[in-house]
Amino acid sequence: KNELLQTVTQVFDVVDVNDKPYDIIFDPAPINEDSSAGAAVGQVFVHDRESGDNANDFLCSPSACPCVLADDASGKFRMAANNHVQLNVNGIDFETWSPADTVVSLQCSDGSLNSDPQTFSITISDVNEPPTALTPTTAAITEDTGDGQAVTSLSAEDPETPQTHTFVLVDSANGIFQTSGSLLTVNGSGHFDFV
User: What's the whole-model pTM score?
Assistant: First the structure.
């Protein structure tokens, strides 16, 4: 039995389907505590197979793939021009800050489809702040108090602990008082005549 075979060539067109952006890139810089609103955090980039540059691993420009903060950490951050993330509040305090307070979620779009949200943590850096309060203890001195006699002890409150403080007199009452470590002392004798 003879069989006849016929070969048919079929051409298929591959139709491009828009894929959503993927792999958000965001490397946030640490923010110093007490920074002002508008402080730069970093720029967001995303990949997109249709809108991206195929010579650069499909990296999409901010104008072609704008991004938004899907979660702005309760308003602490904002999106600015060209996919730049900025601080949106004044004065985040390191001493009361928790890393969970500064987690953001980013989402980017190619104009038709949105990327999956991705979360990123932004770090707050500690800054040495000045003491907030100088606290002398109440004291009285007698007339003719001797040189070096302690009048009161000094202490300070400081957001950063532990800290060593140095006390300096801004006004020594014409040289009558001086500091010695954390003590306010008499500088010389015979200055205090009660009569």
Answer: 0.71
